[in-house]
Amino acid sequence: MNGQGDITHRSRVDTPKDNYQKALDAIKGLVEKLEKEAGAVAGTVAVVPIGIGTPGAISHKTGLMKNCNSTCLNGMPLQADLETLMSRPVRIANDADCFTLSEARDGAAAGTNNVFGVILGTGVGGGICLNQQPVQGINGIAGEWGHNPLALDNLQSNNTIFPGMPPRICYCGRRNCVESWLAGPSFELSYDIVSGRKLRAPAIASLVQQCEPDAIMIMDRYHNMLALALSTVINILDPEKIVLGGGLSNITSLYTEMPKYLDRYVFSDRVDTEIVKAKHGDSSGVRGAAWLWPLEET
Ligand SMILES: [Zn+2]
Fold it and tell me: Of these four, 95, 117, 134, 290, which has the most CB atoms within 10 Å of its CB?
């Protein structure tokens, strides 16, 4: 990515499974390949620092990785090892934090100083940017709202009667996590429970357009639950903008209908927080990793 935020080169390799050394070598190989390409264009090869976005986080106390879905990284000093391997400084941040930084820096929330970024995909993640800097926190988990419990007892329905659904046990072991109701597979499960049909989220969203009653009801419930979950974030952080990313962020009613429910749950006489769609889509995670190095520091 250049200094204007334009991606100039892009390369992707599969993550080696269950082998830490191979993961290190894959990253080194990618960096060397991209550097070669960039050098060929610019006519020079400069040693540049590296920014990495990853699921999970780096512990500030120990410098070791944790909560990574590439489990071979957990417990390892990834940053120190990469710095030694590539002889250059490396910064590592959670991928949702990188997403939020990308959108706060030059995306859908550019120019705002208090931003909450939300990933609604196969899981639910979140990140915070204050004054265009990611907030990571002492435990490295700032913004991780996906495993907060969703207070379903407080869900206030309109005229819609929501069907009873059994509580959900999250893979993390907790009960009724935000993720277990608001991730893409969770949304699809809700529709399946009501309709008996296993459909992917985009298909359910298009059934709403066709006025299919079960799809309308499940989508309405999703808006309501998302507002309930976001209200806890707004009450604490009070962001100017909340940026939605991930597969479900393509559902347009999240921006038109969901905000109507916020008034019920946010502790304020009015809610001025804007809910906006990510500008950079799937590229925001890697863009944000690059922005971990502001231009003035490179
Ligand atoms: Zn959980």
Answer: 117
pTM attached to this predicted model: 0.90
* Digit-coded pLDDT (tens) for 35-81: 888 775 555 556 788 999 988 888 888 899 988 878 899 999 999 99
CA distance 73 to 86: 17
**Beta-bridge partners for 288:** none
Distance 155 CA to ligand 1 centre (A): 19
- 149 Cα: distance to centroid of ligand 1 (angstroms): 8
Q: Are 195 and 208 in contact (CB under 8 A)?
A: no
Q: For residue 79, how far is its CA from the centre of ligand 1 (angstroms)?
A: 27
Sheet holding 124-130, edge to edge: 133-135, 124-130, 114-120, 241-245, 274-277
Q: How far is the CA of 178 from the centre of ligand 1 (A)?
A: 7
Across the chain, the runs of DSSP E, i.e. the strands, are: 50-54, 57-58, 65-66, 90-94, 114-120, 124-130, 133-135, 241-245, 274-277
